[in-house]
Fold these 2 entries.
Entry 1:
Amino acid sequence: MLDKKAGLKRELKTLLKERNAMLIAHNYQRDEVQEAADITGDSLALSQAAAQSDAKVIVFAGVHFMAESAAILSTDKTVILPRLDAGCPMADMITPEELEREKSARPGVPVVAYVNTTAAVKALSDICCTSANAVSVVNSLDSDEVYMIPDRNLSHYVARTAKKKMEWWNGFCPTHERLTTEDIINAKEEHRGAVFVCHPECAPAVVDMADHVCSTSGMYKYALSSPARTIIVGTEMGILYRLRKENPDKTFILPSKALICPNMKVTTLEDVVVSLREMKNVITVPEEIRLAAKKALDAMLKAPRDY
Ligand code: 13P
Ligand code: SF4
């Protein structure tokens, strides 16, 4: 088993060099994939990395919409998604037809699309956002009214801070929605004095209990700077790999065993190696959709990070 892993790591290193490739991995990926990656990060950092990299090939260890965004931003690169079945249920909760209907009901109201959307939906949106810049993106718009898709929880969180009249689509992340206020009460009782950091994809009642709300990479920053010794973490369990590595003197508590995204966990190190070896699972986007979606992504990349 150990020999197999060592062999895979060796082959990956050789392949990355031979193909002038870069492995980028989301913070929720398996430990073995994060460990092998050139860059790990949140959705915003990974979009920026994809747009700026000089590599010829990007192996995107994440879910489909992330690889698709990389393919939209960088036509001069081949973008590979090691497992084509790594989707995002939230991204599939709104179709282009449904968005068209919502737009017709609100003429002139700009649409902010969370990056967790398909390229075809981004193409119909004015600007994208991630959990790391959603408030800045919404506040950057000229209009007093904003329609946000697809995550009702992120939208609800943004609506509290942004100075806009907001409406939103009723989508959600099944993984984050599984975290309950009960889970937090229990974790706080068991770990007196612990602070609670939470992703804005969690339900509003859970977000209300948080000491800090941020993107996954925001959590690394918070953990490093917080004086707290014990931190309850309200997001997918993949985050624990780097949190524990970077803060060996602190304790991180996952308040629910349900905080696991099956889509983020399908990709193994072997899948990464095989996809790069065979140059398979290349993600492409039809040019008309790509150009329109790129406008929304480029607009987002100009906005500052909230945290
Ligand atoms: P971030 O890493 O951008 O916070 O994204 C969370 C997420 O659920 C991605 O699917
Ligand atoms: Fe989608 Fe949620 Fe999984 Fe992220 S954690 S990929 S939003 S289902």
Note: Residues 33 and 44 are 19 Å apart (CA to CA).
Entry 2:
Amino acid sequence: MKTKRLLSMGPPGAGKGTQAANIVEAYGVCHISTGDMFRSAIKNGTAMGKLAQSYMEKGELVPDSVTVGIVKERLALDDCKNQGFLLDGFPRNLDQAHALDTILAELNYNLDAVIDVSVENEILINRIIGRRICRNCGATYHIEFNKPKTEGVCDSCGGELYVRKDDTRETAENRLSVYSSQTQPLLDFYKGRGLLVSINGDQAVEKVFADIKNQLGE
Ligand code: ADP
Ligand code: AMP
């Protein structure tokens, strides 16, 4: 199987993280989620975490000067070279997309596909508000659509499930508006390069993944 270099680009709550777990398992790629990297920095109390937190709590984008740097460092590591990667939640604006072009050119990488998982806003709000995450392993659940076997407990590792601080209705609405003004225009950018793979995200998790696999091939 050829090493894959992928982006996933849907709006918040579309199922990017959920599908990333399936994609990583099927294709063996490294999962690079800028949101996860920021949450880990916040948990560890680093200076970058403190800065990122102030933007994340409002649903704003963390400044490019910080975000581009962490992606550049991560992509340069050997595991990305050997296994390929799935960038999840980056780029989120045109400047980040241009910065990514430069990083990929320096590393001599080409993208294979940009996966756009689309879902209507009203559904997205409910998905975001009902999301639960495992504090220990990061697995994602939903109180209605993807319930853990025991409420509040992770099926995979027994860890405690928590609600992300930015998963309130108010912040979710702002994140969706940031997505439509800053991130959605990137779909045309990648469509113009023939890389866009459009997926209907308003289907069962397994069906969404089957569609992704169908489009990506082996
Ligand atoms: P993103 O990473 O795009 O923000 P997540 O993967 O965290 O989105 O999914 C958001 C929420 O929606 C989670 O609670 C997840 O369990 C749920 N979810 C993901 N995919 C689906 C789906 N196809 N149908 C219903 N709920 C879903
Ligand atoms: P996510 O986990 O992808 O939903 O991202 C959660 C939050 O992290 C976003 O609302 C932003 O505040 C921040 N974030 C994640 N990725 C980026 C990015 N590429 N650029 C700027 N901010 C980001």
Note: The pocket of adenosine monophosphate (ligand 2) is lined by residues 12, 34-35, 38, 55-56, 59-62, 67, 89-90, 92, 96, 166, 175 (CB under 6 Å).
